[in-house]
Amino acid sequence: MDALYHVLISPFVDMATQPVFFAEVVIGGLMAGVMYALVALGFAVIFKASGVVNFAQGAMVLFAALTLVGFMEHGLPSWAAIPMTIVVMIALAYAIERVILRHLVNQPHIVLFMTTIGLAFVFEGLGELIWGSNVKALDIGIPDQPFFVGGMLLNQFEIFAAVTAAILVTLLVIFLQKTAIGRALRAVADDHQAAQSVGIPLQTIWVVVWSVAGFIALVAGVMWGAQSGVQFSLSLIAFKALPVLILGGFNSIPGAIVGGLIIGVGEKVAEIYWGPIIGGAIENWFAYVLAMVFLMFRPQGLFGEKIIERV
Amino acid sequence: MSEAYADAAVSAGAPQAPARVFTETLLSVDDISLSFGGVKAISNVSFDIKQGEIRAIIGPNGAGKTSMLNVINGFYHPQQGRITYRGKVRKKMRPNEAAKTGIARTFQNVALFKGMSTLDNIMTGRLLKMKRNFFWQALYWGPAKAEELQHREYVEHIIDFLEIQSIRRTPVGRLPYGLQKRVELARALAMEPHLLLLDEPMAGMNVEEKEDMSRFILDVNDEFGTTIALIEHDIGVVMDLSDRVVVLDYGRKLADGTPDEVSRDQKVIDAYLGVPHE
């Protein structure tokens, strides 16, 4: 009975009796969620256009952050280093299309997926080769002052991250949903042959999509790098993005955001209120368990397209 | 000649129609050879497709019919030979470039965008007709929207034409095979093609569906003036629909002519239709 009380009742009592602290936890969770969502967005864009999870997205985040820091270490101001990094990411997208994707037209999805695993290692290796493997601090002048709103401790950096994510998502949604390119992307993801036969230039679409994914990787890399330093473990945040995508639906841009927020808030709340009961560390596995539950009951995610197969 | 055509039509049970005469060449393939590694798919095949006609390509399985469509459509690049399209020798091109020049096609095993609705599938056929590029579309809401509506109107016209109003919103993955083939035809038509390539448009259909599809093909040819090249195994259908037939066997051209001429050709009878019983 006592155990049940601690699991089912006492956490909610705590929430109700200390609403300001609860709000702080939720907001902290939302901010963490925004950071996850930034990474998940890159996956969603590539998935939309190829039906494949880009395993290299995490490595791209790392590579983009490393490149930016590298340029800045060579004395470039951030207003010059950021556009230059964008150019590098676009050049990479072009190279990936030219060297890899062009030769894999009409191949099954699993082949493309394996390719992205290879790409992840190429990105990591390339990053280490060019910029070295030390942990680097990234400071592009994002304000990082804590302040109080109604008794809650907030952080300027987190607000900045949230606003950036909101702008990014709005742009992506307009780009992907409100223009004909969205339809073209879905067509390319469904069937290469058919897409080509209606005149969709696969090559152009891929360069555009990987460039967009590269840009998102840069934004995510800047945010994560500024928060916790640019280091090789950055490429591992890709694993945190997977449950986000399972929750939100792999091919949905809004899904990536909502999924990120749910997981961010979920794991923070679980850690704070239920963590002490089992000795903590809930944050590490909560997202994956949530994703598993979703896979059982709603495999297409919250916003994903339903998968229809005629048998 | 008209007598011969009528004869063939009667024998196939179709209403009597005068032979149509076409003069202008839309596309010609000259001395095309295509091989994959050591396997020759097509050897030295030449034929032409005239503006406005319905041209059938027939032959046993593995004769190189689909390979031929893939060559015309830009999926395959022949090792040898020349393609002349609308009066110009065509350089090596990709399928999306061929689409730009007005060549649309359907596939043997239905290549639709399965997760998308019938309407969205057909709308993809309009992508090339959309003038504003992607970035302008994102910026200019008004004009881009107006353009979308205008394309939508054309698509609705095709939907009416092919009698698929009731499945407009249905994801095509859910449709029965016969209707999927019809949606695929609709998507190709949405491109307003000069040349429409149909790869076994009636494969796997029952008699009623075949009759519908035959009627649509004739109507498309008649109303839109679209030139059609089709691959079909049902000889009755081929004899009814086509103005001229080219017969392939083991990658070589066996015969070329009106359905009647072809069906009387001894080589064709031997290789494809079977040896007649006396």
UniProtKB/TrEMBL annotation, chain A:
It is found in: Cell membrane. It comes from the Bacteria. One of its GO terms (cellular component) is plasma membrane. Keywords: Amino-acid transport, Cell membrane, Membrane, Transmembrane, Transmembrane helix, Transport. Its main location: membrane. It is a multi-pass membrane protein. It holds the Pfam family BPD_transp_2. GO terms for molecular function: transmembrane transporter activity. The chain crosses the membrane at residues 20-45, 52-72, 78-96, 108-127, 147-176, 205-224, 244-265, 272-297. The keyword rRNA-binding does not apply. GO terms for biological process: amino acid transport. Belongs to the binding-protein-dependent transport system permease family. LivHM subfamily. PANTHER family: ABC TRANSPORTER PERMEASE PROTEIN, BRANCHED-CHAIN AMINO ACID TRANSPORT SYSTEM PERMEASE PROTEIN LIVH. This is Branched-chain amino acid ABC transporter permease. It comes from Ferruginivarius sediminum.
UniProtKB/TrEMBL annotation, chain B:
Keywords: ATP-binding, Nucleotide-binding, Transport. It comes from Ferruginivarius sediminum. This is ABC transporter ATP-binding protein. The keyword Nucleotide-binding applies. InterPro entries: AAA+_ATPase, ABC_AA/LPS_Transport, ABC_transporter-like_ATP-bd, BCA_ABC_TP_C, P-loop_NTPase. One of its GO terms (cellular component) is plasma membrane. One of its GO terms (molecular function) is ATP binding. The lineage of its organism: Bacteria, Pseudomonadati, Pseudomonadota, Alphaproteobacteria, Rhodospirillales. Residues 27-275 form the ABC transporter domain. It comes from the Bacteria.
